[in-house]
Amino acid sequence: MIEIKVPTVGESINEVTLVKWLKADGDYVERDEVIAELESEKATFELNAEQAGVLKTVGKEGDTLNIGDTVAQIDETAAKPEGAAAPAAAPKAESKPEPAKQEAQPAAQAAAPSAQPQADVKATPVASAIIADKKVDPKNIQPSGYNGKILKEDVLHALEHPGRKPGVELFNRTEGREKMSNLRKTVSRRLVEAKNTTAMLTTFNEVDMSRIMAIRAANKDKFKEKHAVNLGFMSFFTKAVCYALAEWPAVNAYIDGDSIVYHNYCDISIAVSAPKGLVVPVIRNAESLSMAEIEKKVVELATKARENKLALEEMQGGTFTITNGGVFGSLLSTPIINIPQSAILGMHKIQERPVVVDGQVVVRPMMYVALSYDHRIIDGRESVSFLVRVKELLENPELLLIGKDPVKTLLEI
User: Fold this and answer.
1) Is the dihedral of CA 235, 239, 240, 245 positive or negative?
2) Which of 27, 209, 279, 401 is deepest in the core (most CB within 10 A)?
3) Pair (391, 247) in one structural domain
């Protein structure tokens, strides 16, 4: 009997949560087949079978396990079931007359909700068990948990009110309780720590996005054809930030005890809303990447975040963070520093507004930008100058080529 234990997943991580069994107790599993999903305080990862054999589950969904604890056992001496190697041949074995198939359909349809309630529905382990036991169609259940998760109370309410359409009753006098995930605990702890341990201040400005939007409209098709990725706003902001960080290195530094550590590179963290909470993957050496390389990296990291496949090393070591609340419609916000970094830039919704240009009121697509910074290391002059520089680079995208005015560079003035 082989024991499958919780692996070491990173420094300072002592425990994980068993989120979900992907294989049931008694199933025959192949070597390296994924059997469970675990979650640490920083990421979600999969647990693989070390040998082929019959699985015996030890931990339960929702359990908190220490590193090195036994999650499951595998009996590698067990014989492989005869039907396991050829599941595709099963339908052909049922060569029955057509009337018999038609009679069997209602029973199959009735059993469908209980056979695979977790396949496309997010539910707590207890809720899933009740759904399977009572044969409740998940489509008739109104979820009240975070991010659309079905709770135990939701299933019981559906059983008490059969036939009622989900969403008809927006509020009721019940309460739901759900255990906070390790990732959510970490996000909560770090946000409070940032508030309590930094002298955080926010400065604001606004950017006329006319030039960038015109460039995107004129070149997005050719850009996608050439690089196989869309031309978004993140590459413009990342480029602008890298040039501004080179001019104001304190914004790219952090405090370590009695010392200030300066970075001679730009590892830009991007805040991404994942299914299980906020994650902040890192674009390494962003200062040396092209626009297309930045866009490709953004897509890669965002996709991994949505699929809970980010590795720990992809979320560690950033020097500056960019967050985009505009994708959710935010017009203005004060982002919280991603410690131990010293600053974070907040992007927001692009909105047409009247502005004065050369004494005339004109309508322009404007975006508010916000820089939250640690006043212990970054002075007001540095923070404001940094944000003004970012604004200048974004409103004059040709400067992003070399970070300077081409004419002035040519004339060496």
Assistant:
1) positive
2) 279
3) yes
Verify whether residue 263 is a known catalytic residue.
no
Ordered strands of the 70-75 beta sheet: 2-5, 70-75, 53-57, 28-29
Q: Is residue 188 part of a domain?
A: no
Would residue 379 show up in a list of annotated catalytic residues for this protein?
A: yes
pLDDT tens for each residue of 30-61: 888 888 888 877 677 788 888 888 888 888 88
What is the per-residue pLDDT for 16?
84
Question: How many Å apart are CA 108 and CA 118, to the nearest integer?
Answer: 17
80 lies in some domain? no
Mean pLDDT value of segment 265-290: 91
Q: Which of 63, 267, 375, 405 is catalytic?
A: 375
In angstroms, the CA 146 to CA 124 distance is 11
Q: State residue 354's pLDDT score.
A: 97
Q: Which of 32, 358, 379, 405 is catalytic?
A: 379
Residues 407 and 397: their CA atoms lie apart, in Å, by 14
234 and 362 part of one domain: yes
One domain for residues 296 and 361: yes
How buried is 323 (Cβ within 10 angstroms: 0-12 exposed, 13-18 middle, 19+ buried)? buried
pTM for the whole thing? 0.68
Q: Rounded to an integer, what distance in angstroms lies between the CA atom of residue 318 and that of residue 269? A: 5
Query: Is it true that the peptide bond before 340 is cis, omega within 30 degrees of 0?
Result: yes
pLDDT, tens only, 133-175? 888 888 888 888 767 789 888 888 888 877 666 655 566 778 8
Q: Label residue 233 exposed, middle or buried (CB < 10 Å: 0-12, 13-18, 19+).
A: buried
The answer to whether position 54 is within a domain reads: yes
